[in-house]
Amino acid sequence: MEYSLFKRFIDIVGSTILGLFFLPIALVTCVAIKFDSPGPVLADTPQRVGKNGKLFKLYKFRSMVINAHKRLRTDPKLAGLYSQYKKNSYKLKEDPRVTSAGRFIRKHSLDEIPQLLNVLKGEMSLVGPRPYYPDELTEQQRKYPMTRELVKEVLSAKPGITGHWQVSGRSEVNFDKRIKMDADYVRKRSILMDFSILAKSPWAMISGKGAV
């Protein structure tokens, strides 16, 4: 069986098993979100860039105040924070939009559980490159013009819930290094490599290393 077909088989079986395993944790997370702050359980996040540049809605548990992404980009009071966000490769270590429960949820990657639905729908894979925001790719390629060809390589594959740089202990690196690691994965990907990344992912979740 060729790689793409076997990978899809693993994605369907794996996401189903993981969905059942994480169901109790997901239910507790939903309750914690509702008790902690007003708003829906799922985050209202901008679309992400999928395979071949196709946009899709990525499911995540809400770990921030409502309309957090829109407010960051449009609220004049957050202009300085947005500038820092873009400067730090679209990450913030100290983000005032994160709720109390959200800090724990994000640290241990519990907000990623709903992405198993994206995997079942075929929009994502269990293992793959990071699912980037459209404006993130535009801004970062302007900042790092040498990454344009790497971005093309990365977008030839489905994004993943976990990936090479997430489990490498280097999740805090800037965009130019991160996109290179994603491109390296796309070039070298194999079932063995995918299983290796999946095996390392639980520790990355438990330790919360590099999570923001």
Q: What is the helix/strand order? A: HEEHHHHEHHEHH
Biggest sheet character: 2 strands, antiparallel
Low-confidence stretches: none
The number of helical runs is 9
Helix and strand content put the structural class at: mainly alpha
Overall mean pLDDT stands at: 87
Q: Work out the strand percent.
A: under 5%
Total domains:
1
Evaluate the radius of gyration. 17 Å
Read across the widest sheet, the strand sequence of neighbours is 1-2
Relative helix content: 40-55%
How many strand elements? 4
Q: Give the termini separation.
A: 38 Å
In terms of quaternary structure, the protein is single chain
Shape summary: globular
Please outline what is shown here.
The chain is mainly alpha-helical.
What does this structure look like?
- It is globular and about 50 Å long.
- It has 212 residues and is mainly alpha-helical.
- It has one domain (3-207).
- It has helices spanning 3-36, 68-74, 79-87, 100-107, 115-120, 134-143, 148-154, 175-188, 191-207; strands at 48-49, 55-56, 125-127, 160-162.
- A two-stranded antiparallel sheet has the order 1-2. A two-stranded parallel ribbon has the order 3-4.
- The model has no long low-confidence stretch (mean pLDDT 87).
List keywords for this structure.
212 residues; mainly alpha; two-stranded parallel ribbon; 9 helices; 4 strands
Topology, element by element:
Elements: H1 3-36, E1 48-49, E2 55-56, H2 68-74, H3 79-87, H4 100-107, H5 115-120, E3 125-127, H6 134-143, H7 148-154, E4 160-162, H8 175-188, H9 191-207
Parallel strand pairs: 3-4
Antiparallel strand pairs: 1-2
Helix pairs in contact: 1-4, 7-8
